[in-house]
Write a structure and sequence with these properties.
The protein is an alpha/beta fold. It has 14 helices and 10 strands.
């Protein structure tokens, strides 16, 4: 990552130094209703005079309509291209805020303070921004590296256990595609009982940074980071249309890790014994997501809009053994549905 990255309890003082050195024309802070309540009071003392906007919390508000609110707010407060937008939140705030910054007046600088485990190890790092559209995850967006990422694990104390587990899915993913030894170390880890996430976050972010550095715009190796997401995004998107059945991103990805590991076995890439290891680690942290067999085709249909696809080909990332991802593996809708049926059967 070519811009500022600080991980640890020194993150907020480092942000203060970053703002002083950058000397933006105006400073803005974007939060959601949760982070405005729980995290903004920890941040505000470190900042000079600024404007603050609170948007509604939740994936259902990760839309162009919410972007309109942010753009209007920046316009009303006469933000120019030398302004700085600080995004304080989980993946919804970092993705949406980064997209708003990248597109407002063709781009203003953005600093990211991820407050959830998922955002700290994944969504807040790597320069992907975007919003959901027509029911499809992150359908509209751009690649735009933030000017700085400041990760304070202390924010994790504000999270309920279910949110910690959601981020843990991305940590498992990073290990599965790039570090078999790290995956082995995850066996038996209780995400709700970790006293200090700092070393785990640093290692997981380092794995992601190594991949992003090779391929910033996802033309090749960066597709590895989508392991678990072809099926996981399809499941998450489908359940977002079912009132009362919505699931967290990490919960859907956890299911996707099992489904796509199973597909790896079907392709002869992954030994069945290693699939059992994936299921053991994922199953220890995540409950099963409920759906019926009759829904599998409707869920699978969402994979047609996956961003890795080319033409009519659904491109998936699979495993060639634990710790070794392989991208651009063509799969069919029938295979996506079959993997969901397998997940339902275990």
């Amino acid at each position: 990552m070519k811009n500022s990255l600080v991980i640890g309890p020194e993150a907020l003082p480092a942000l203060a130094d970053f703002v002083r050195q950058r000397a933006p024309s105006r400073l803005f802070v974007l939060a959601d209703t949760n982070t405005a309540r729980d995290c903004y009071p920890l941040l505000a003392p470190h900042l000079p005079a600024h404007e603050q906007l609170t948007i509604a919390a939740g994936e259902e508000y990760k839309t162009l309509a919410t972007c309109g609110q942010v753009w209007a707010w920046l316009t009303q407060h006469q933000a120019d291209r030398h302004a700085l937008l600080v995004c304080l939140g989980g993946g919804v705030v970092t993705d949406l805020g980064g997209f708003c910054a990248a597109t407002y007046k063709r781009g203003v600088a953005c600093a990211v303070l991820p407050t959830t485990l998922l955002a700290q190890v994944d969504a807040g790092v790597g320069g992907k921004t975007g919003v959901d559209f027509e029911g499809f995850k992150n359908h509209i967006g751009v690649f735009q590296e933030p000017a700085g990422v400041f990760i304070d694990p202390g924010f994790l104390a504000t999270l309920p256990p279910a949110e910690l587990r959601s981020g843990y899915a991305e940590i498992i993913k990073h290990a599965l595609i790039a570090d078999a030894a790290a995956f082995a170390d995850l066996g038996g880890l209780d995400a709700a009982a970790v006293a200090d996430w700092t070393p785990i976050i640093r290692h997981s972010v380092a794995l992601k940074e190594q991949i992003v550095a090779l391929d910033p715009h996802e033309a090749g190796p960066r597709k590895l980071l989508n392991f678990g997401h072809t099926v996981g995004h399809a499941l998450e998107s489908y359940l977002l249309t079912q009132a009362g059945r919505e699931v967290r991103h990490g919960e859907a990805v956890a299911a996707g890790l099992i489904c796509e590991s199973w597909l790896s076995v079907q392709r002869g890439l992954l030994p069945a014994a290693e699939l059992a290891e994936v299921q053991e680690v994922v199953g220890a942290a995540f409950g099963k997501i409920s759906f019926i067999t009759l829904e599998t085709e409707a869920i699978a249909a969402y994979a047609v809009q996956d961003k890795k696809n080319r033409g009519d080909v659904i491109n998936c990332t699979l495993l060639r053994g634990l710790g070794h991802g392989v991208f651009d593996q063509p799969i069919t809708l029938a295979e996506v549905a079959a993997s969901l049926q397998y997940y339902n059967s275990i």
